[in-house]
Design brief:
The structure holds two protein chains of two kinds. Chain A is of the alpha+beta class. Chain A folds into two domains: 165 residues, Uridine Diphospho-n-acetylenolpyruvylglucosamine Reductase, domain 3 (2-Layer Sandwich); 110 residues, 2-Layer Sandwich (Enolase-like, domain 1). Chain A is built from eleven helices and 14 strands. By secondary structure, chain B is of the alpha+beta class. Chain B has two domains: 77 residues, Ubiquitin-like (UB roll) (Roll); 71 residues, DNA polymerase, domain 1, CATH 1.10.150.120. Chain B has a five-stranded mixed sheet, sandwiched between helices. In chain B, helix 2 packs across helix 5. The longest helix of chain B has 18 residues. Chain B is globular. Classes of the chains: A alpha+beta, B alpha+beta. Chains A and B meet through helix 2 and helix 6 of A and strand 4 and helix 3 of B.
């Protein structure tokens, strides 16, 4: 394997075009274990971390721009970002140990395309956009359009994610992400659930976004759960509807981490809890996320 | 396999070495630089035995391609002790019997140093989370956790730098 570390997006695009089996990487926390487990070695490794834009975190007037190769520890340690997006920050902070956190990135977590990637449901409920470098410049697509199945993305050969854009939440809004793992730390989600809730002046739900991870080939929004909340109070009845919709939205696998029936059941429970936590945050009630 | 020239700072010394382009920093530190304190446990980032500091951040050397070290500052277990005395973490691990076979110990010490650099007064829970990326299969974790807490307390009393 050869290695290059370009310093501009254009040079990285050029490096990718120069070799048919080139591969971009950020933290390499998925790439190196995959190579060691027998996946084919790329001929050219393109390290994106020396490109300033790929590791910049910028607070704009109405949005944030997050370099796709930024270590997730940078996000979790940023009080302004974590204050505005506690759910997204906590989701990013669940990816592995401190050693991994100093290398893992949102771009890598998304493009590795594990259905269980923790940051993805949290990015989905925040309507995050991915800015993708192409041979002709950049194009911007919703994060939900990036992954197409386990290990596969919609990106063409030679493309990579430069940065993410996420609008600041409106007033009276909170987000949350919680996951189920069989132990306290260092595991892959059996189920993950993200939510973002905006409350109206009466304390009812003005807008709801709910997303699930690890229960389908890709993370997905749950439209029926969102519809059950919109314009409604957040109470036992509407939360029961959220849970039912979340369980119905699952298309999970049976594996050593959980059966299909178990994942469906837990998805309903976690969706409900994520909505409750997001709504509490929207109301200004500070609650610790028990999942971390 | 192509080889790449890498210049970096390791344990305070400017170091140049030639490394396999696709090889790990772990292998480069052991085989090209001769720092055998960096241990390989799993080679996939799960066990933390190869933990080093890169630009003051704890990372697994097995998950870093060697050329990524270009221009970076690396600290390994060999850089932890002072000229004449052990680092307080090392001393407390000895006194607290926080090791048996010792393979995991360099990684635990580097992860603990990274914690105390940023948080000189951690709770037990904070220590446990900070060391969650390090596995020990001999001693068990309680002696390790207690030793880190003892070192933190001693360093606070002495006003020592981590």
């Amino acid at each position: 394997m050869d290695y290059v570390a370009p310093t501009t997006v254009e040079d990285a695009v050029g490096a990718l075009a120069s070799s048919p089996d080139s591969r971009v990487f950020a933290g390499a926390t998925d790439l190196i274990p995959q190579i060691r487990s027998g996946r084919p070695e790329p001929g050219l490794l393109v390290d994106l971390k020396r490109i300033d834009r790929l590791t910049a975190v910028t607070e704009n007037d109405a949005s944030w721009t997050i370099g796709a190769a930024t270590p997730t520890s940078r996000l979790t340690e940023d009080p302004a970002f974590s204050g505005q997006f506690p759910g997204l920050s906590e989701a990013a902070g669940l990816i592995g140990s401190d050693q991994i956190q100093n290398r893992s990135s949102l771009g890598g977590n998304l493009c590795n395309a594990s259905p269980a990637a923790d940051s993805v449901p949290a990015m989905l409920v925040n309507d995050t956009r991915a800015v993708i470098a192409t041979a002709d410049g950049t194009r911007t697509i919703p994060v939900g359009d990036v992954t197409t199945g386990p290990g596969s993305t919609s990106l063409s050969t030679g493309e990579f994610i430069v940065e993410f854009e996420v609008d600041k939440p409106p007033a009276d809004t909170g987000d949350a992400y919680i996951r189920m793992i069989p132990r306290t730390e260092m595991d892959i989600a059996v189920v993950g659930a993200g939510a973002r809730i905006t409350l109206d002046a009466d304390g009812n739900c003005a807008e709801a976004r709910v997303a699930l991870g690890a229960v389908a080939p890709t993370a997905r929004r749950v439209a029926d759960a969102e519809a059950a909340l919109t314009g409604q109070p957040i109470n036992d009845d509407t939360l029961a509807a959220v849970a039912a919709a979340a369980s119905d939205a699952c298309d999970p696998i049976d594996d050593k981490r959980g059966t299909i029936a178990y994942r469906k059941q837990v998805a309903g429970v976690l969706a409900k809890r994520a909505v409750r936590l997001a709504a509490d945050r929207a109301a200004g009630i500070t609650t610790a996320n028990g999942a971390h | 396999m192509s080889r790449t020239h890498v210049s970096c700072n390791i344990n305070g010394d400017d170091v140049d070495f030639l490394s396999e382009s696709g090889g790990s920093l772990l292998n480069a530190l052991r085989d090209d630089v001769g720092l055998m304190g960096v241990k390989e446990g799993c080679g996939t980032g799960d066990c933390g035995a190869c933990s080093v500091l890169m630009d003051d951040r704890v990372t697994c050397a097995c998950l870093i391609f060697a050329p990524e070290a270009e221009g970076r500052s690396i600290v390994t277990i060999e850089g932890l002790a002072g000229a004449d005395e052990l680092h307080p973490l090392q001393q407390c691990f000895l006194e607290g019997a926080a090791l048996q076979c010792g393979v995991c110990t360099p990684g635990f010490l580097m992860a603990a140093k990274a914690l105390l650099d940023n948080n000189p007064n951690p709770t037990e829970t904070e220590v446990r989370y900070a060391l969650a990326g390090n596995l020990c299969r001999c001693t068990g974790y309680d002696k390790i956790i207690r030793s880190v807490l003892d070192a933190a307390e001693g360093m606070r009393q002495n006003g020592a730098q981590a």
